[in-house]
Every structure is written in structure tokens, then in C-alpha cells.
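INFO  loader      accepted 1 record
INFO  loader      residues=158
INFO  predictor   begin
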Amino acid sequence: MKLTDIKDNDGAVHRRIRVGRGIGSGKGKTGGRGVKGQKSRSGVAIKGFEGGQMPLHRRLPKRGFNNIFRLDFVSVTLERVQRAVDSGKLKAGKVDEAALVEAGVIRRARDGIRLVASGELKAKLDLTVSGASAGAVAAVEKAGGSVTLTKPKAEAAA
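INFO  predictor   done
INFO  writer      dumping C-alpha cells
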């Protein structure tokens, strides 16, 4: 083996293509932009332009709105809570938002947690959450636990 034989693996290094540097390069003259006209020039932003015709996004009617004050709750099912208890990540007893995050049931609490009655709960838990469906409250009480509702974080701050 000689020093002249040393080289990178194929595809390890990409050479930068020098655009617009003569027709011999293969990317010269128009520089990969096609031919003349508005789109071949720099600084052109004509997204949604339809040649003077009324664009589609202006022809369609507007409907509804985004409520900027809407609270973003994380839904947690009874089945998911029971799975955490069965695996030993969540201990029976008092459970709040911090305990659910620590157990890995949810990633973050956002504006609060809402308990949903999907699945079955066997463990006796005293849950403290921002919201809960009527079915979820009934299922927790049937298992011998209780549900305490707190104000969502956004409301408590205001």
C-alpha cells in the first residue's frame, strides 16, 4: 500500500457543485434554473399566484376561527393508568400530574390532565387531575378510589 492509494470510501465526501461556472461544468449558463423569466431570477416568491386569476385560497369562503384561549389538555385513559400500576411504575394511593409524568404515563402535563373512561381500572387510586369524564369518575370510585378536580394551570395563573 502506498500513500497515493489512500482515499475515502465511495460516497463519504460530496463535492459541492459550483453552479453557473461555464457550460462545460454541466450546471452553467442557466445554473439549473431552466430558462429566462421571473422564476429564473433571484428574490421571487410567487407561491399561490395563478397568473392574475383569483387564487384558490381567496376563492374559497373562510369558516371558523382558532380560539387562542383554548386550553390544551392531555388525555389519559384508565387503561394506561392501570398498565403503569401493573408494571410497578405507578404506586397505588395518591396520584397527581407530577407522578404521572414521572411514571412515563404522559410526557408533559401541558395545561392539565383529563381522565377518560377507556379501559378498566382495578387499583385503588386517589387521582388529582384537571378534568375527568363522568364515566372515568364512576370507574375510579367503583375501584375504591377518588378523583379530585383542580383548576387548569392556565386558569390558576390568570
